[in-house]
Design brief:
This protein has a four-stranded antiparallel beta sheet with strand order 1-2-5-8, with no helix packed on it. The chain is mainly beta. The radius of gyration is 13 Å and the shape is globular. The protein contains no helices and nine strands. The protein has one domain: Archaeosine Trna-guanine Transglycosylase, Chain: A, domain 4 (Roll). The N and C termini lie far apart (44 Å). The model has no long low-confidence stretch (mean pLDDT 94).
Length: 95
C-alpha cells in the first residue's frame, strides 16, 4: 500500500502529502520509530503540508528538521499548512 504522506525528519511538525487527501481522513506517518497521526481538518493537495500537532501563532513550522517559517495564524493538527498560514523566514531581505 502506497503511503499517503511522508515525515522527513523526526523533529518535523508537518508531513507532506503523497496524494490528494480528503478532510476527515486519518493519516499516520512514521520514521525511525517516531509515529504521528492526524485527522485532516481540510482537503490537502498533493505535495502540500499538513500539521501533525498544533502550531501556535508565530511558532516555527518545522520540515527537514529545520524551521522553514513561522505560523501567521494558529494552526490545528490536521490543518493545511501553506502560504496562507505560514511565512518563510528564508531569503527575505526585509526581516
Amino acid at each position: 500500500m502506497k503511503p499517503k504522506a511522508i515525515l522527513i525528519d523526526t523533529k518535523d511538525n508537518v508531513a507532506t502529502a503523497f496524494q490528494e487527501l480528503a478532510k476527515g481522513e486519518t493519516v499516520t506517518v512514521s520514521l525511525a520509530g517516531t509515529e504521528a497521526t492526524a485527522v485532516l481538518t481540510q482537503d490537502i493537495p498533493f505535495g502540500h503540508k499538513f500539521a501533525l500537532s498544533a502550531i501556535g501563532l508565530h511558532e516555527p513550522v518545522v520540515k527537514y528538521g529545520e524551521t522553514i517559517g513561522l505560523a501567521t495564524d494558529p494552526i490545528q493538527a490536521g490543518q493545511h499548512v501553506h502560504v496562507h498560514n505560514m511565512e518563510s523566514q528564508k531569503g527575505r531581505g526585509d526581516k
